[in-house]
Specification:
Bound molecules: flavin-adenine dinucleotide
Strand content: 15-25%
Number of domains: 2
Oligomer: single chain
Largest sheet: 9 strands, mixed
Number of helices: 11
Mean pLDDT: 95
Shape: globular
Radius of gyration: 21 Å
Length: 431
């Protein structure tokens, strides 16, 4: 049977899941990725730098919102998208939230857990800092738990290398599924930036791209799936004359930092343990990589603490913010946090303060607000329907942009489930 061509724009969690599934089912898949194909073997400092796109993409990878407060957001521009720099924490999708929008992904969670090893760190695998914070959190009465993680090969797990530039191969990232799609016949076009969609009479027939050397090219297909991420997908829609949603969530977070009177720190995994409080406030331990620590101390003018990283323990406080503001066709984000968002952050900071104090930390301070999970900009129920289909025929979206609400939890597993569900739907519609 002839199978149709599928173009997928973006190779992060959403794009990789759809690519892997559709290639497995025998469709002719082409993946168009803005960034280069960086392997995760690049070393602790060089790898994140490369995966954020290097100097070339400095202003595309590190964005600051226009609003109050101004929020820094980062995204990776590389094969595998932000999973090449992520913390690898996994959280089961909140099923009731998705059901409210007509989306049932219960089976997909089970299926994905058969494909990727997802499990928490065992107590003996926890780092010193993660353990200190866990004990302190439990002392304050919180039900702190070890958080699930994505593994490719857990036997190779090392606290010092699981994060950026994981040379061991312990951590799973979306590049694994892109490579599987390629083995099943998919083609990956790196450094191909999708400028806009080719749409005629309400039906998409392909995409216009610019290559690394500035050449403009058109590619045609039966189905187009946008998976350029919470910022990338609305930009493409805006440049194609298709309305994207109004607003975005960014899962705003602050880091609470305190100091013990003895040295403890080596590199550790972020969010080894944590808790999601009922009102959409998530907390987790967050050992800061050296560069991130230095950046935060300078940004927050804590110069006297610049050399104290080896005594610091820190907690990430993240909230589920309202979808608000806008993204224009250049990717410029306007967004002001609501009073409700700010109150939640304050509430979370109070809880973090209590935990750090219970751990015996002193000189506690909080970083400026930043964001790391942009999404909701093409949300289900507004830009796409429950099958991730847009009003433009044969055009679908599958990435963080379709998440209908902020969840304040690591979103990768939810996006994978949506990708798997979309592939099932596409194969039922196009065969
Ligand atoms: C530092 C950091 C830590 C994180 N930690 C965790 C964690 O522990 N657990 C978790 O679940 N999540 C985590 N996340 C979030 C998670 O990585 C993202 O939510 C997820 O990767 C989003 O997937 P996506 O498919 O929506 O987009 P992305 O991963 O952003 O991928 C989109 C891809 O599209 C490409 N692209 C964009 N525009 C275009 C265009 N016009 N043409 C072609 N290609 C384009 C980009 O280069 C990118 O590769 C973290 C994110 C960051 C930045």
């Amino acid at each position: 049977m002839k199978k149709q061509d599928v173009i997928i724009v973006g190779s992060g969690v959403g794009g990789a899941t759809v690519a892997k599934e559709m290639a497995r089912k025998g469709y002719r898949v082409s993946i168009f990725e803005w960034g280069k194909d960086n392997s995760p073997q690049g070393g602790f400092f060089a790898n994140p730098f490369r995966c954020f796109g290097g100097i070339k993409h400095k202003s595309n990878a590190y964005l600051t919102t226009d609003g109050t407060p101004r929020i820094q957001i980062v995204r990776a521009i590389t094969t595998g998208g932000s999973t090449l720099v992520y913390g690898g924490a996994s959280w089961d999708p909140p099923l009731q939230l998705f059901e409210k929008y007509g989306v049932n992904i219960k089976d997909e969670i089970d299926d994905i857990k058969k494909e990727i090893i997802i499990r928490p760190l065992q107590d003996h695998e926890m780092g010193v800092s993660g353990r200190i914070i866990k004990e302190a959190a439990i002392k304050t009465g919180l039900k702190w738990k070890n958080i699930d993680r994505f593994f490719l090969n857990p036997d190779k797990f090392k606290q010092s290398s699981y994060l950026f530039g994981d040379k061991t191969g312990a951590r799973w990232d979306a590049r694994v599924w892109i490579n599987e799609a390629i083995k099943n016949g998919a083609t990956l076009y790196n450094e191909h930036y999708c400028e806009k969609l080719i749409i005629k009479s309400g039906c998409v027939s392909g995409i216009c791209v610019t290559t690394a050397n500035g050449q403009k090219k058109d590619f045609f297909s039966d189905i187009v799936v946008l998976a350029a991420g919470g910022i990338g997908s609305p930009v493409i829609l805006n440049n194609s004359g298709v309305e994207s949603g109004s607003g975005i969530f960014v899962d705003p977070y602050v880091v609470a930092i305190g100091y013990l009177d003895h040295k403890i720190n080596g590199a550790e995994v972020t969010r080894q343990g944590g808790i999601l409080l009922e009102d959409g406030i998530a907390l987790g331990d967050s050992t800061l990589p050296l560069l991130a620590y230095v950046k935060l101390t300078i940004e927050n003018k804590k110069y006297e603490k610049l050399l104290c990283r080896n005594k610091c323990i820190s907690i990430l406080v993240e909230i589920d913010d309202d979808i608000s503001g806008s993204i224009d066709k250049y990717g410029k984000i306007k967004k002001t946090l609501s009073d409700k968002d700010l109150e939640k952050l304050d509430k979370g900071k109070d809880v973090a303060l209590k935990i750090l104090e219970a751990a015996g930390a002193k000189d506690i301070w909080f970083s400026k607000i930043a964001g790391v999970h942009p999404g909701g900009s093409c949300k289900i129920g507004r830009v796409v329907d429950s099958n991730l289909s847009t009003d433009v025929k044969n055009l679908y979206i599958c990435d963080a942009s379709v998440l209908p609400e902020s969840m304040a939890i690591p979103p990768a597993l939810s996006i994978m489930c949506l990708g798997k569900r979309l592939a099932g739907y596409l194969s039922s519609q196009y065969n």
